[in-house]
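Entry 14. Structure prediction run on the chain below.
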Amino acid sequence: MTTMLSRRALFRGVSGGQVARRPPWTGEAFTDACTRCGDCIAACPDQLLFKGDGGYPEIRFDQDGCNFCGQCAQACSVDAFNVDGPAFRWRINLAANCLAFADIDCRSCEDACEPRAIRFRPALGRAAQPELSLDACNGCGACMAVCPADAVRLEMPNE
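Output returned:
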């Protein structure tokens, strides 16, 4: 089944803004263990996984966020996934083009954020401003899928 990329995903790919994001519960050694069989891609019920560069699985958040169902990890026959650790290490950040920063009332990311890592605080004389809780963020990407300004970023925390 072929799916069309959203304009945002296409633009990110052309502009170089698209980063290779691996499936949940995978670390830096994932590409060493992965056989590129595609079983995890086929197992994803939300079709978030796709064959990326070199045939390795990647995850894309242009339509939806990961619900951590674990079917990708269960489908892996070589145990390239480590479900004992966190699903994703990256955390949310907002770019300067966030609509709220331009005094436009938009709370799409807050509405999509199940763990409530994004909340909006009312501000006197301007649109409510986002506040991020990196501790609450699970990196699921649901906020990225709904952002009309493509302002949501998932970044690795400074170590």
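The longest strand covers residues 126-132.
Filed with the rest of this week's runs.
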